[in-house]
Amino acid sequence: MSKRLVNVLFHGTGCYVPSVCWCDSKTFIAVPELLRRRRAMAVIIREFVDGDMSRVLQLLNEQRRGSHEFVPFAEERLLSLMREGRLKIFVAEESHETLGTAAYHDGHWGEEVEWVAVCNVPDGKAVEDALVLEVEKHVKKGKVFTTVDEGSPLVSNWISRGYRPEGGLYQMVADLDGVKPLPQVAKSFIIRSLRKGEENEFVSVVNAGFGWERLKSGEVQRWKVEAPYFSEDWVHVAECDGRIVSAVVAKQDVEYNRSFKGSRGYLGPAATLPDCRGRKLASALTRRAMNFLFEKGMSSAALYTQEQNVASVALLQKLGFHVGHHWKFMWKNLLT
């Protein structure tokens, strides 16, 4: 039987000892002198298997209940994230009882501790720490982060693990109460909707604007499959000299509307080529997208932007957006 390296938590001491034993499904070998000093209970950190699904969902939803715009995780949502290949889930187990779960996510903002959720047990903080250490082992680029509500007491827990606050994320929301004029742009720019056959150019512009692969080829077609209402009309672009130079995507905020019986739209991604910035293209396209959502029956619009993107925040505030929620990024450099 193949063996795997595990992490051990010694209950009653609050002492977490990483990688001190080997085990298989039947055998646990602990450090003898520690066993003589105190009875040891082994908490094994392992990867998620199908049979863990219901317990992981329970832990995750209990931990997130009461959070901003909380929507319970469902099995299909987790499976979808896992199918994308960027989410890796771990569980903490003692005597075949699942005590906690954590997840690694390689997403838009970087490599992330997506969640840590542990049930109410003695040494719960040590179980959390063990799960975080396991996630950190899978970080490829040497830097990892997590998100915490601004002002949350959990910030101190992450600081104790070596994480430091560095930037953050705003959810910004605006009411839609009518069609409003677009900010004027130079006559050399044409503001319009995306046309069929332009998807590759659109994806290229978004990725160039972000400076990394924000979208993959075939993204517009995938959006159409996921949301039958969606078409190229929902993608708003600026054209100059026959090429697309800026884009803003509008969608229905389906999950929010379903969970909270709302009529909210969502904006993003949005990007402008570096050589065309500062020409009010983002403002014009965002206003056009807001008008479009209003005409589709949406009463508000939401989006996300980084707090350190001061220019974007100022632009959005001029268009009527305000901060709906604020998360802090907690970063850790694993190479120092």
Please name the CATH topology of the largest domain.
Answer: Aminopeptidase
Low-confidence segments, given as residue ranges, are: 1-40
Spatial ordering of strands, largest sheet: 7-14-8-13-12-11-10-9
Mean pLDDT score: 88
Give me the count of strands: 14
CATH superfamily of the largest domain: Gcn5-related N-acetyltransferase (GNAT)
- The helix count comes to 10
The profile of the biggest β sheet is:
8 strands, mixed
Give the helix/strand class: alpha+beta
User: Do you know the CATH architecture of the largest domain?
Assistant: 3-Layer(aba) Sandwich
The first-to-last residue Cα distance is: 37 Å
Total domains = 2
Specify the helix fraction band.
Answer: 25-40%
CATH class of the largest domain: Alpha Beta
Radius of gyration: 23 Å
Order of helices and strands: EEHEHHEEEHEHEEHHEEHEHEHE
Quick take:
The protein is built from ten helices and 14 strands. The chain is of the alpha+beta class and 336 residues long.
Walk me through what this model shows:
The model is unreliable at about 1-40 (pLDDT under 50). It is built from ten helices and 14 strands. The chain is of the alpha+beta class and about 325 residues long. The longest helix is centred in the C-terminal third of the chain and has 15 residues, at about 280-295. The protein has helices at about 30-35, 55-65, 75-85, 125-135, 155-160, 200-210, 220-225, 255-260, 280-295, 310-320; strands spanning about 5-10, 15-25, 45, 85-95, 95-105, 110-120, 145-150, 165-175, 190-195, 235-240, 245-250, 265-270, 300-305, 320-335.
